[in-house]
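Sample 3 of the quickstart, ligand beta-D-glucopyranose:
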Amino acid sequence: MTKSVSIISSAAVIVALVASCTGAEVYKDPSAPVGKRVEDLLSRMTREEKIWQVTQWTYGKNMNENNVEKETKAVSPYVGSILFRSTNPAYYNMVQRKAVEESRLGIPMICGFDAIHGYRTIFPIPLAQACSWDTDLVEKSCSVTAAESRRSGVFWTFSPMVDVARDSRWGRVAEGYGEDPYLSGVMGAAAVRGYQGESLDSDNSIAACLKHFAGYAYSQGGRDYQYTEISSQSLWETVLPPFEAGVKAGAATVMSSFNDISGTPASASPYLLTEVLRDKWNFDGFVVSDWGSVEQLQSQGVAATPAEACEKAIEAGLDMDMVDDVYLDNLDSLITSGAVSEKVLDEAVRRILMVKFRLGLFEKPYIEELPEEERWLLPEYRTLARNLAAETFVLLENKDEVLPLGKKPGKIALLGPLADNAYDLMGSWNGQGDSSDVVTILDGLVSEYGRNSVKYVRGCPFEGNDRSGFSAAKAAVRSCDVAVLCMGERMKWSGENASRASLALPQIQEDFIREIASCGKPVVVLISSGRPVELSRIAERADALMAIWQPGTEGGNAVADVLSGKVNPSGKLAITFPYSSEQQPSFYNQRRSARPFMGHYQDIPKTPAYEFGYGLSYTDFEYGEIRVNAEGENFVAEVDVTNIGPADGSETVLWFISDHYASISRPVKELKHFEKQFIPAGESRTFRFEIEPGQHLSYPDSNGDMVLEKGTFSVIAGGHSADFELKLPYRIDRTQKQTKTI
Ligand code: BGC
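Result:
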């Protein structure tokens, strides 16, 4: 089949003409039910047209003026989808017009793009967003991304990524919501709601894509694209729950992952793509491959030829093939030979068309060509980005309450490779972000305190051995009242294909911090990174230490808000900071050990530097004892939290359950609920967790069926815990189909 503009054969046209003479074009009727429109359209399509529908190409990579015409010409009007890399609505309309006006049936394309934590207004990386524990802000940020994207021709984002982090050497931990399956699911669902809004056909909605389905984060040793070994138990307990939460939230699409699980690549797994996704979860959207993941079935050793790869992927339930043309080149002959049934292709096309109809593409394929200032970076978007970023910062150390700096901190020496750096603050996968929009930390502090109060000296590079800036930096510190050091990772050190063997910062950064600390002035160290880094040696030197992640467009303003004390930090870690790289993998919800107090490495501490859920505030919160009472079939746990410090602040209570004994051993504790509340200084608030046994005390077995057993459980929050007994028989909510008792 030709890869340039498609020529629909005359035989196909005859078939089509016959179809179009046999009845009204229901698919064009907006008042007809979507299912009927899909079936009508499907019945009119030739096999060749269907094969184009399951194909995705890219467009817009090189959109300089001389190239636009060439790129646009090369796009087939029949292609089902393009990865739309331009930001220009006119180019979107131009390429969409080809599909709508030049293809026989006028089926619009769906244009997708990786707007992972923002389109043009860049929000903090998803890992940071999870540390805010603020689902409302996360949802709102995704709504903004949706609005900016759709106004620019992107109707589909390849987000959220809900791979549960297991090894921080894997660079893609930046793109997910940390190490907890429940938190990842709650955040993923918030993102889906934000992107998709009330209705997919609204002008501010786009289709979400849950990725990478499934198990990609288990890449061995944190090395990207590697083989994964995942037991069925871990699959059901850790990997799949956030995807299920995203499907329940209505995600329109899912992306299959690159990895293979114990010999079966996810992109060729009927178990994952059909049995679990379609049959068990009733997912009604479509599955897109990851970039070239169909073709890669050959490198993964399960397909000898592209044709075999094609057959395995489509038979498994993978509906759309991203960029490698394996479906385009092979489906026709596979169907002709009988190796693949046309029904399988029909099902894939049906699912894709369904999403296109739901997006309103048939009614409104084109977009208004608004000027840039009406499409993105609206003042309210920037405000949201600033507020969200400030909520994501995690205060790790604050000796002698060196922070907040307050209104008059004296003179600030601002140092380090990230102080006057716009680009790296955006983080990986920064959509159509532009560093010229970014408020640097220098900009933020200058607008907070005035130019004369901030003395900026870079002093230290990211890496290498150039120590020539150290002495100027030290001189600046000696002439100032406080040093603020902006250290950490370059953007490209995390993200895809950015695995690192060591989580330590380059030696020169640690040396710089040590030298600055020797000047005798208070030292505030800000760490910007896409993953946990080794902080033990840095924490010893710093008076205050704060993880600011990669905070995006408004990062510098958010830093100024928190350093000055206008915003009291309330972030808590969604991922463990290990003591050192050698502690990897390191996550709180480990399964129990035979000898809990033994077996750790003899040469390093056994505990992490900062555990999941850790985070300080400018005030202190005191937790009371947890009260647990039975209420009907549920248990209600409550705890009073009092703000006993000097400042107003927000506290997130993380509720964990520990199941002491079970037929399948449970992790030491598991997060089941969380709640964030603002508590003015001197006041108390009650936090409540309604424990529904079927939901919060059950666990999946290796088939994904939920198991509920009687016994003793602990509910844990803020360092306190209370025990309670579940006595069966317990009436299970019949709407939870998979639940059973043993
Ligand atoms: C990544 C995906 C991404 C896709 C399209 C792949 O390399 O793994 O996460 O959505 O490219 O850009």
